[in-house]
Amino acid sequence: MKALYDGPVIDAHQHFWDLEANQYPWLTGDTLVAHRYGDYSAIKRTYLPADYLRDAAGHDVVGSVYVEAEWNPSDPLGETRYVSQLAASCGRPNAIAAQAWLDRDDANDVLAAQAGFDRVRSVRHKPGNPDGKGRTLMSDDRWLRGYAALARHGLHFELQAPWTQLHEAACVARDFPETLLIVNHAGVPGDRSPDTLRGWRKAMETLSVLPNVVVKVSGLCERGKPWSVEANQPIVDTLYALFGAERLMFGSNFPVDGMFLSLDGLLSGFAQLVRAWPHAQQRAFFHDTAERVYRPLGLGARSCTSGSLPTNERASR
Hints:
This is Amidohydrolase 2. This protein is an alpha/beta fold. It has a single domain, classed as Metal-dependent hydrolases (TIM Barrel, Alpha-Beta Barrel). The chain contains 10 helices and 8 strands. The protein has an 8-stranded parallel beta sheet. It is globular, with a radius of gyration of 18 Å. The C terminus is likely disordered.
């Protein structure tokens, strides 16, 4: 029996937040917005690099990519400044997917400013999900003008959208071949019913023929169900067949997926999911693809204490 992968890992999708110092509307007070995982009250707590490093103990997680966490939308650069300070203090994260609103009048200016931070590699703007089937911002001319500006600033795009919207994403990727489109959360397959899996696979097949598309295998939890290797094996097998390991990346989606299992359990579970792959392909999935896509800085930092956190931001709210 093959040994499970125990080599270096770059976590391509994770979050930090300090709820005492900064504003995240969806994490404030008693607020609960619609979320595909249901009630997320359990993650309404500060989660910083020291917490992440503690959770990752025992695994060779050499770096991570911070993905915007729906910080105050009126201040997208404030989030990037804060997370850059965390990186300077703690060595994590090693790359940043920043916030930008592509349909706003100031989109080009925000993109230029975000690209000026040394760890920013991409931006995310969720295109909306009015009914799961209708047109989204990916078909809006203003949004598309903002998307067109990404290439000028050397930025990738992070797409979080359910699989029912991926036909629009395929058009965007085809029309803007110079911009790398990074599909978050495996295209959000949702439930594991046969009809859903057939529809999701067809949508992912459409994207797989486009060379400027890569996929983060993250956020695979199901509302009201425990995370399991058995439930996720068909997802991972399909993605491997369509994209190959060189276009797939592991992402923990922590602390959000911590609602369902520990980071140790998640990393161990994914090692089981890819156990049949050649070792080089496993390393590509866990490390090499993310290293190529995000060009992370300062890999290997493993210690951070509360005293090393950016205290000026803690007092700024």
